[in-house]
Design a protein that fits this description.
With 118 residues, the protein is mostly beta strands. It has a single domain, classed as Jelly Rolls. The chain is built from one helix and eleven strands; from the N terminus they run E-E-H-E-E-E-E-E-E-E-E-E. The strands form three sheets. The chain has a six-stranded antiparallel sheet with strand order 1-2-3-10-5-8. A three-stranded antiparallel sheet has the order 7-6-9, with no helix packed on it.
Length: 118
């Protein structure tokens, strides 16, 4: 399977981030995980949320931000990777001067039904 970034439309998820599903079972035929690019505009943040089933990996590819993960709050920047276990509340705020871009890997794959806003 192969996808082209230019052919993938972006949409807004329940947490308020702009997402491009780079690979997702419902769209592309893979089986157990999803990979997406999230974009958060300068000064904006996602809504606090959690996933009851999915484990997520966030890998920052551009910009910098402030990550809230459970009770912890810490800075992230290009090259950083964060593991988010199922059930752990999280959000991210763009604290930089450019759009914050994050690769988000989810297993099992992302679903709106597994996203609980807090």
């Amino acid at each position: 399977m192969k996808n082209s970034y230019a052919d993938i439309p972006a949409y807004v998820t329940r947490d308020g981030s702009l997402i491009r599903e780079l690979m997702h079972p419902q769209s592309h035929g893979n089986l157990n995980q999803s990979l997406a690019e999230a974009s958060v505009s300068v000064g904006m943040e996602t809504l606090l949320h959690r996933h009851l089933k999915s484990e997520e990996l966030y890998h920052v590819t551009q910009g910098e931000g402030e990550m809230t993960l459970g009770q912890s709050v810490f800075l992230v920047a290009e090259g950083d990777t964060v593991c988010i276990f199922p059930g752990n509340p999280h959000k991210i705020r763009n604290t930089g001067k450019v759009e914050l871009k994050i690769l988000c890997a989810s297993s099992p794959s992302y679903s709106h039904e597994d996203t609980e806003l807090l």
